[in-house]
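Um, can you check?
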Amino acid sequence: MSWEELEPYVEEAFAGTAELAVTVAPEEAGVSRDDLLFAARENDAPDEVLELLEQIGPKETFADPEDLREYLLGEGLIEE
């Protein structure tokens, strides 16, 4: 999967974390895997997107979309 296919769901998660009523502990400020999955499900993401996001470690948090992109590239989960 390419970053471009995933990006709309990522942007939604970062833009709406507070609005999505997903609680993030202050020491874990950022967007978590659960935040990403919630946003993707709310926006009817295809199964391929959900399956990719489920591969992110449950304790991972990301400061911004680029942080997530670098993580996914490093894990070999998305194509450049």
